[in-house]
Design goal:
Strand order of the largest sheet: 1-3-2
Shape: extended
Number of helices: 13
Strand content: 5-15%
Helix content: 55-70%
Mean pLDDT: 81
Distance between the termini: 112 Å
Structural class: alpha+beta
Radius of gyration: 37 Å
Low-confidence stretches: 44-50
Length: 248
């Protein structure tokens, strides 16, 4: 009996030890976890190229690309009403016949409204027409602005003379005079050398041309505003123009 009583506490102790060992979970070290992650990542990298395939989609028809009709509005200032009225037929014809858009002049809001219709084929034609009308409103000739419809790589850029240098009074007038030159000579020279079109409207300068040509013309105009003599500016732009011509 005594032996049985001695054995019972020992059995209880062993069962308690087993319970304790079961209750404690084995914690893995960070190094082993990191190695396992790297190993799994390597397996995933090797599996991806074989599993992934390029999706093939059928071409979308032009009818599905067309969403709801879009409209653009271009505000017309008061001093451009008369030129717009005189040149309306020249503006109206390429927008309607070539780009297949709808256009009208809203007399109440004084805006030129351009809208897509069911005959419009190219999605980008609305942006071209809006740029064309905007260029005319800014003061460019219709023939020059028409290049925005015919060519893709033409842009409009506008900046103020006071953005380059904060000038006031006579100093501002002299800076504008330096850009224009006597009888517009300086402006015409910059236009011919850089193959751009320039419009001076009070303190605003509007440029029409390709990205590289606008950059050259803008640099020349900024130098004139900052006080460089026209002869030096002519030399600089001729050198830059000759270099770009050699590249192409």
């Amino acid at each position: 009996m005594e032996s049985d009583t001695h054995m019972a506490p020992e059995a209880c102790a062993t069962t308690e030890r087993k319970d304790d060992t079961d209750s404690f979970t084995k914690v893995k070290s960070k190094k082993t976890q990191k190695r396992k992650r790297e190993h799994d990542g390597a397996d995933m990298d090797t599996e991806e190229p074989s599993a992934s395939k390029r999706p093939q989609f059928p071409p979308i028809s032009g009818d599905k690309l067309k969403g709801p009709d879009e409209m653009r509005k271009i505000a017309v200032p008061a001093h451009r009403y008369t030129p717009l009225k005189e040149n309306w037929l020249k503006i109206f014809t390429p927008i309607v016949e070539n780009l297949q858009l709808q256009v009208r002049f809203n007399l109440k809001t004084r805006n030129v409204e351009i809208k897509t219709c069911k005959d419009t084929q190219d999605i980008g034609s609305l942006t071209k027409a809006a740029d064309f009308v905007k260029a005319f409103v800014l003061g460019f000739q219709v023939e020059d602005a028409l290049a925005l419809i015919r060519l893709d790589e033409l842009f409009l850029e506008s900046f103020d003379v006071t953005d380059v240098k904060p000038l006031k009074g006579d100093h501002l007038s002299r800076a504008i005079g330096r850009i224009a030159g006597k009888g517009g000579k300086t402006k015409f020279t910059i236009e011919n050398v850089t193959k751009t079109r320039i419009v001076l409207a009070e303190t605003k300068v509007h440029l029409l041309g390709s990205f590289q040509n606008i950059k050259m013309a803008r640099t020349a105009i900024c130098n004139l505003i900052l006080g460089s003599p026209p002869s030096k500016v002519y030399g600089n732009i001729r050198v830059v123009a000759s270099r770009t011509a050699e590249r192409f």
